[in-house]
Model the fold of this input.
Amino acid sequence: MTAKSSLWMVALLSVAALTGCVVGPNYHQPSIPPPPAAFKEMPPPNPPNGSWKQAHPSDAALKGKWWELYGDPELNVLEERIEVSNQTLKAAMEQYFEAREQVRVVRANYFPTLTGGPSISRTRESYNQPGTKPDVTTYQYNTFNLEGQVSWEPDLWGEVRRSVEEARANAQASAADLANVALSLHAELATDYFEMRGLDSQQLLLNHTVKADADYLRLTQIRFRGGVATEVDVAQAETQLETVKAQAIDVGVARAQYEHAIATLTGQPASTFSLPSAPLMLMLPAIPAGVPSELLERRPDIAAAERRVDAANAQIGIAIAAYYPNVQLGGAGGFESANAGTWIQGPSALWSLGGSAVETLFDAGRRHAITAQARDAYEAQAANYRESVLQAFQEVEDNLAALRILNDEAQTQTAAVNAARRSLRISTNRYRGGVTTYLEVLTAQTAQLADESTQNDITTRQFAASVQLIKALGGGWDRTQLP
Done:
């Protein structure tokens, strides 16, 4: 084969590689049940007591820093620290970078591999080797070699293109995973923060109750010394006071745990981190839920699942490409001489061109099994994608329902608290007037504390449910942020 014909062969195979077929199925997004026109559980209306913060026109959609909806400067500062200091988020980011570099690794297979370098050697052959002539003494010589080699496997069947497609889809899935980790961490921090502030509200309530119970104990002791109350009344008042004191102390256990969790989420040692006590006095914001069809574009976990379906589909094409011949092209060229002075000269030039095609004739069904395995993996990823869609709708509906029901419960509980406070006032006046025993007051005290504690708990649960709703809606993320 002449040099000219060899070059023509290389050029022809290059064009074939660039325009050749791509075996395997092209990707189509799996079908899912059509989303409903609206969520079954609509966001609750603003109640008459104004416990919800009205949405502004700019709040029609969640933004990236969704926690700013709550209007808490301290929460905003803590949330910002996650992007800088959280180690879980850093690990997820490095995993994305790793997947992104894998795309470059696979893309390199589009191009030939070129190697080259000089070599110099001194050789002494045996004077007694077969075929030597007694009068020939040139069995020691130098070799100066400068040679380059090129090898290339043209992508005739699209295996490299499918591999790039798979790597790109996996990188996008990793980017969506990163966004989902960030969303989960921000939501966890907000939930822990509101739970801690709810405990601060409970602590404040119990402190006020301790003070009130101490006043009741002094009143009962005065009445006992005056002969109006009994020793049983004093014992009951002491029991009530000490019980509430114990409850107030016990709140510190859970609060410390939430504070430590916040420290870890923000990348700080728990032993050096503290937040001052502050009751939960915020107004609950209105959460823009949007329409169900938008949910598919706003959930990073759904995007990650869909991208993995694409990657699995590309793997089918890679498996099918194994049925076709492997074509390898190679060449070498350079200079070789026995003397350094004639090393880089025309007569010292050398070159070679060649190619090979290898087809597997028998593999005991291995390729068939690998292809079937790839198709099964695709179906599994498609099922995971559909399940993630259904799960997303469930999470949104769950939290919309929770907010609606908790809103109704909060209004009813407010009425219960007002009634309990009125009952305690009446019982206290009756006790001061000597009409009844301290047992009636004690019953009213217990009922009021229970109702006020429940009211605080409902408020905390409302904030936690609002955070989970924001997380279920994607937290302001959308598919356009995929690289």
